[in-house]
Amino acid sequence: MKRPGYILLLFALLAGACNITKNVPAGDSLFIGGRVRINDAEVTAKERKVMRKDLQGAVRPKPNTTLLGMRTKLWLYNLSGTKEPKHKKGLRAWLRNTAGEPPVLASSFDVEKNRQIFTNMLQNRGFFYPVVTGHTETSKKRKTKAIFDITTGPQYHIRKTIYPQDSSLVAEDIRKLQDKTLLKEDQPYNLDLIKGERERIDRGLKEVGYYYFTPDYILVKADTNQGNHKVDLYVTVKDSVPYQAFNIYDIGKVYIYPNYRIRGKAEDTSKESAVSYEGYNLIDPHHTYRPIVFTQAMQFKPGEEYNRRDQNRSLNRLVSLNTFKFVKNRFDAVNDSVLDVYYYLTPFPKKSLQFQVGGLTQNDSRYGSNASITWRNRNTFKGAEELRIKLGAGFETQYAGSSSRPNIYHGDAEVSTVIPRFVIPFTHIRGSSYYIPRTYIKAGYSYESQSNLLTINSYKFSYGYNWKDDIRKDHQLYPINFTYVQTDTLGRENLNLYYGNLLFNGIILGPTYEYTYNSQAGRKKKNNIYFNGLIDLSGNILGLAQKADYTDNPQKLFGSTYAQYVKLQADVRYYYDFFPGFTWANRIFGGVGYPYGNSYQLPNVKQFFSGGNSSLRGFRSRLVGPGTFNEQYLFGTNNYIQTLGDIKIEENSELRIKIYQFINTALFVDAGNIWLYRDNPDFPGGKFTSDFYKELAVDVGTGLRLDFKILLIRLDLGIPVRKPWLAENQRWVFNQIDFGNNKWRGENMIFNLAIGYPF
């Protein structure tokens, strides 16, 4: 067939697919959903809107899915033709069975069945006497819509809730829980609320030993004969409940199997080989683990009253050891008041080797690669300690751009030990949260070479702790942090590059504390908040003791100068989900470093930078500021490798919009800058002043995100709209935007390629 024949065939297929009822049998029609009309004023306009949405979503069957008003999947189904494909593979089979969906027929819709669904839903929300009518309307294009008219009637509210009044022990314990009831006076009657109350009572009883109790044993009776559309609720315990549900159980013996395998040796699961330690029975004939691992993790103790909170804590702490890939437990009733507990733990392989290779790009025409190899031992000293040895290397090089930057080559090595408990001299802290605390001991070395300009050798040692109050709150405290930096300059004769602000030779010694709160780590809500705060200190006590002063009395430690500063920073993020697939994300970052005593400014490794694919996306990476400083504008050169500051303020905001499946987009605006704490003649205009708000850089842009769940690829395009280095009344540059000008595009359109969200 000639090419015009192919084109005609394609047009014929598309024209046929546009008729969305082409595969609807004769005498039938396409069901396109239901419309709900609430015809009385018993509920507010806002409540009617929510109710209408819920009821329309409950119509069965569901109509064909739509995207931007089009029934895309049905269109793809129709594109496959009217007959079933002869072959299971191929384009037609894929269109029909995978990408598309068959038409939903009006003959499958039952008005009476849907009317009853609506009636039940309304009664469950306290509208006990609704009137629901429905009918269908079919258009000439063979499309059928269901129309429902609803008169809700008055909604009933709770007058009072009465809890069991008998003298049984379980009734007494239920009454103790009524202060935090969900069924409050004047609350609208709601079946979901009643179900939640049953589960709340069950959780409360589980905390005081009722192991065999379940929410199904609770019955809530409603009495609507109170007048004035009020209802009394009676919380009772059903009559047909096994007697064990009324018993309070204590913990008997606790057995722990740390090497459990379904097809393991008999000796690994025999109670006869159990070794008792602090009341726990450890079945570990090969002495793989020291018992202290489990006394740290377990929250149950023999003789204590059973409660579900301790059960969940024990399981979660065992999982958070990161030593066992499967953790399960079992309770056996020894009699009517004692439970024996069995924990079956299947460990990960003790040793593992991991390789990682990655690429990176920067928005200043740089690209590079990183590679690392990590060896891990998950039970180094038989206390579930994790020993890691990591070796890494990488490079960055420049392939284009108006300003030349040196190639960077780096390598690093780190040895770290993670101990699943607090290791604190002269004291013992067990902890009782859902997460095992950890002690970190790290030692590392890193090497960096920047072409022929300089080499940096860094030696690090740290000792600290990490613990969680709950899944949302994380603490990191490192009382010991030691860093020694040795910088060798190799290219002072190369005067066309400025790197003086990157030179630091000396010691950084001091504690750090970091706190993170993330509401998204729990149950995700419409509004979510993330907060990260850091306190970083160096040389404070030593500098005060030596009365160090960088001008009159500079001091040294082990023959090297040391940094003295206080650094504080906070990262606050707010996320608001308007509806699924449409999120407003915001970040405010503030950081200040106060160098004093032995330091004129922060060490460059502790300073802030601005610009780049996770910062100000309309500006070159690490070349914004400080303050009103801009090398190109002031000197007409591009010699500075990067610019840094002691103070940083930045705000980012973006709308994240889901387009289709894994394809998302975003609209964003960024604002911020960095500043110096003290004047520096190499950076005129860089000092922080009370006019800092006049020196903010601003950009706007749009982005495309490919979200493959395990990997998110981000492509952002930003342009500057406020340049702080210009004269004060000329900093907004909207009037200079010229997309048709090749030179303007080259200087102002900044493309960012990155992995993951910027915040």
Task: Please outline the major beta sheet.
Answer: 17 strands, antiparallel
CATH topology of the largest domain: Porin
Percent range of helical residues: 10-25%
Number of helices: 12
The quaternary state of the protein chains shown equals single chain
Number of strands: 30
Mean pLDDT: 90
Structural class: alpha+beta
Q: How many structural domains?
A: 5
What is the overall silhouette? globular
Portion in beta strands: 35-45%
What would CATH call the homologous superfamily of the largest domain? Answer: membrane protein fhac: a member of the omp85/tpsb transporter family
In the predicted model, the low-confidence regions spanning at least 5 consecutive residues are: 1-17
Assigned CATH architecture of the largest domain: Beta Barrel
Q: Under the CATH scheme, which class of the largest domain?
A: Mainly Beta
**Ends distance:** 54 Å
C-alpha Rg, in Å?
A: 34 Å
Secondary-structure blueprint of this entry?
Elements: H1 3-18, E1 30-38, H2 45-57, H3 72-79, H4 91-99, H5 111-124, E2 131-138, E3 143-151, E4 157-162, H6 169-175, H7 191-206, E5 218-223, E6 230-237, E7 250-257, E8 275-277, E9 280-282, H8 292-297, H9 308-319, E10 324-333, E11 338-347, E12 351-362, E13 366-377, E14 386-398, E15 408-419, E16 438-450, E17 454-470, E18 473-489, E19 506-509, E20 512-518, E21 527-538, H10 540-546, E22 556-557, E23 560-561, E24 565-579, E25 582-595, H11 631-635, E26 647-660, E27 663-675, E28 697-707, E29 712-722, H12 742-748, E30 750-755
Parallel strand pairs: 1-3, 4-6, 7-9, 7-11
Antiparallel strand pairs: 2-3, 5-6, 8-9, 10-11, 12-13, 13-14, 14-15, 15-16, 16-17, 17-18, 18-19, 18-20, 20-21, 21-24, 22-23, 24-25, 25-26, 26-27, 27-28, 28-29, 29-30
